[in-house]
């Protein structure tokens, strides 16, 4: 855990530098000095991140009071749907007690006061670091590292390239170019995929009639970067919301159809066009990478899981090619 806390600001800075570096290059091509171009790119990144956070907080403020108001009706719908099925096994539940306890719990956890929701969210984030001072220190450090990475990006990687022995450069440089191409497709294209999926699922759930459609749709799009796991969590949440709102009915089937079509859209059009063809990682390998990197680096590790496993696959392909083309393998 200590190592992950130390590496977190540097990893975050590197990821954002990689995403923002093309913007800095475009600014520099417009005759803006390198230092100013890097600074402007950092500010644009801060503005974009702040906008996303404020959008999520605004969404949270709007949806939580609605959830609290709709919760008793959800319990009633669950009762109407579940009671006949439990009666088959001669099981009876005290629904009034269940509703009272569940409503009390929801009332405790969710507040109508939007400011309270925001305060609790911020407090939770701050408590996840060792201290408030440490949180802000890591944030400042990440911004500092981000600026200098953007400023010296070409110089930094040029120095690394020059340090590689001449006889290895012909091997390593093509691999580095392949990794860069793969990561650029993934990191930059995935943002567009998330945006399109957020709009698609939000609109689809709204047309079905699911309340909190915008919240669920936006969440589904934002967690699309987590392979398989993000989709399953979003599907379960949407099915639960539809079940509690409508009980058993066609709406449940429509939600399943929507998410099936969403997967087809992502897998056969969005990902190939916007991210590039998947490189062929097996689902088990992706899930293993999610668990390993998530354990080592927390939430940032989940973000890194697919890119890092893709890099490992590039290295594995290279070693596999070298092995099968080696004299040792071909020898009788």
TrEMBL record:
Localization in the cell: Cell membrane
Record-linked InterPro entries: AI-2E-like
A cellular component annotation (GO) from this entry: plasma membrane
Keywords recorded for this protein, A-Z: Cell membrane, Membrane, Transmembrane, Transmembrane helix, Transport
GO BP: transmembrane transport
Keyword Ribonucleoprotein: no
A Pfam family this chain is assigned to: AI-2E_transport
Membrane topology term: Multi-pass membrane protein
Membrane-crossing segments per the record: 6-23, 35-57, 132-151, 191-208, 214-240, 283-316
Principal location listed in the UniProt entry: membrane
Family per similarity comment: Belongs to the autoinducer-2 exporter (AI-2E) (TC 2.A.86) family.
Name listed for the protein in its UniProt record: Predicted PurR-regulated permease PerM
Source organism: Polynucleobacter kasalickyi
Species lineage: Bacteria, Pseudomonadati, Pseudomonadota, Betaproteobacteria, Burkholderiales
């Amino acid at each position: 855990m200590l190592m992950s806390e130390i590496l977190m600001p540097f990893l975050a800075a590197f990821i954002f530098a990689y995403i923002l570096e093309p913007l800095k290059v475009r600014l520099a091509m417009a005759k803006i000095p390198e230092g100013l171009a890097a600074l402007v790119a950092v500010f644009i990144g801060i503005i974009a991140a702040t906008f996303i956070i404020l959008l999520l907080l605004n969404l949270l403020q709007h949806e939580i009071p609605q959830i609290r108001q709709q919760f008793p009706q959800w319990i009633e719908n669950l009762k109407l749907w579940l009671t006949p099925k439990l009666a088959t096994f001669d099981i009876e539940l005290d629904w009034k007690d269940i509703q009272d306890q569940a409503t009390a719990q929801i009332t405790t956890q969710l507040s109508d006061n939007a400011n309270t929701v925001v305060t609790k969210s911020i407090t939770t984030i701050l408590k996840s670091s060792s201290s408030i001072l440490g949180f802000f220190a890591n944030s400042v450090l990440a911004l500092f590292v981000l600026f200098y990475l953007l400023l010296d990006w070409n110089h930094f990687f040029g120095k690394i390239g020059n340090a590689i022995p001449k006889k290895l450069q012909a091997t390593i440089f093509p691999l580095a170019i392949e990794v860069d191409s793969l990561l650029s497709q993934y990191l930059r294209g995935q943002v567009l995929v998330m945006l399109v999926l957020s709009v698609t699922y939000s609109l689809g759930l709204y047309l079905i009639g699911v309340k909190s459609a915008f919240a669920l749709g936006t969440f589904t799009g934002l967690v699309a970067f987590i392979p398989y796991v993000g989709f399953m969590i979003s599907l379960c949440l949407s099915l639960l919301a539809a079940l509690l709102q409508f009980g058993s009915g066609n709406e449940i089937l429509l939600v399943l159809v929507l998410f099936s079509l969403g997967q087809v859209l992502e897998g056969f059009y969005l990902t190939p066009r916007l991210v590039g063809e998947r490189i062929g990682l097996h689902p088990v390998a992706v899930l293993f990478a999610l668990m390993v990197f998530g354990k080592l680096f927390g939430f940032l590790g989940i973000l890194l899981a697919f890119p890092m496993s893709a890099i490992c696959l590039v290295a594995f392909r290279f070693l596999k090619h070298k092995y099968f083309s080696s004299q040792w393998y071909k020898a009788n």
